[in-house]
Amino acid sequence: MKVLIALPVYNEEFILAQNVQVVLDFCQKNLIGDDFIIVIANNNSTDQTAQIAHQLSSQNQKIEYLFIPQKGKGLAIASAWLKYEADLYCFMDIDLATDLSALPRAIDKIKAGADLVIGSRFHPKSQVKRSYFRRFVSYSYKLFFKSLFNLQINDFPCGFKIISRQARDLILPNILNTGFFWDTEMLVLADRQGLSIVEIPIIWQEFLSENRKSRVNIAKTSLSYIKESIKLKIRLSKN
Q1: Count of beta carbons in the 10 Å neighbourhood of residue 170
Q2: β-strands 2-9, 197-201: how paired?
Q3: Which helix (H) or strand (E) holds 191?
Q4: 9 — phi, psi (to 5°)?
Q5: How many CB atoms lie within 10 A of CB 171?
Q6: Residue 87 to residues 10, 51, 60, 67, 82: CA-CA distances in angstroms?
Q7: Is 138 helix (H, G, I), strand (E, B) or coil?
Q8: What is the pLDDT of residues 9-36, one digit of tens each?
């Protein structure tokens, strides 16, 4: 099978080259029997991300570079997933907070019949290192979202998800959000369609660096998630 790995990036000049190489090396060593392609989806960066991505793609045929002129993490992922042909479609955050050991296990779950596989920081077997504040916000949002949509999923926004081609074709045309809420909306729509969603344990560590500021304002993003959740609930209630 061919696996497409989308890496949505915005102003990631400090970690892009190193972490793309980490993903490339891991896939070459561990995706035995499967083909793969890594797509750097540049979300209209203003630093040296484009130049670095161009260089990486020119040096290895397993790496593709895609420029998206509008901002929006979801838009970047969707653009990469729709542009290239594959059997399985994955995305992961470029900071690699989710350990790559989750990738072959997630692929195996899809091969076994799951439609979507998501990394879950709330899985009892997961190993997670993050601040108490982020734990509190994440747990509060989990309770709010589960009660709003009556889903069994525990970790909606984790930046590691993989989906079958059939599920991609069914769900992506109906996703309206283009930002951070994009993959959460994908899960809700997939559940409404009766697709199989499997959560797997992951090793996850909050990425901190002096050179790289966090792309997520926790308070602002949390309020945005709540707003988008309510909008989605209203939208679905009308259908």
Answers
A1: 16
A2: unpaired
A3: helix 182-192
A4: -135, 145
A5: 21
A6: 26, 29, 21, 22, 12
A7: helix
A8: 999 999 999 999 999 999 999 999 999 9
Residue 198, strand partner residues: 117
- Which residues, 6+ apart, have CB-to-CB distance to 238 below 8 Å? none
CATH 3.40.1260.10 fits 2-237, yes or no: no
Cβ 50 vs Cβ 67: under 8 Å: yes
User: What global pTM score does this model have?
Assistant: 0.94
Residue that the structure tokens 């309206």 belong to? 176
Q: Which residue ranges make up each domain of the chain?
A: 2-237
Q: Please report which helix (H) or strand (E) contains residue 224, including its range.
A: helix 218-237
Per-residue pLDDT reduced to its tens digit, 90-115: 999 999 999 999 999 999 999 999 99
CA distance 35 to 28: 9
d(CA 184, CA 164): 16
pLDDT in tens, 140-149: 889 999 999 9
Q: Confidence class of residue 132 from pLDDT cuts 50, 70 and 90?
A: confident
Residue keyed to tokens 């190993």: 127
d(CA 173, CA 154): 24
Distance in angstroms between the alpha carbons of the first and the last residue of the chain: 36
d(CA 213, CA 155): 23
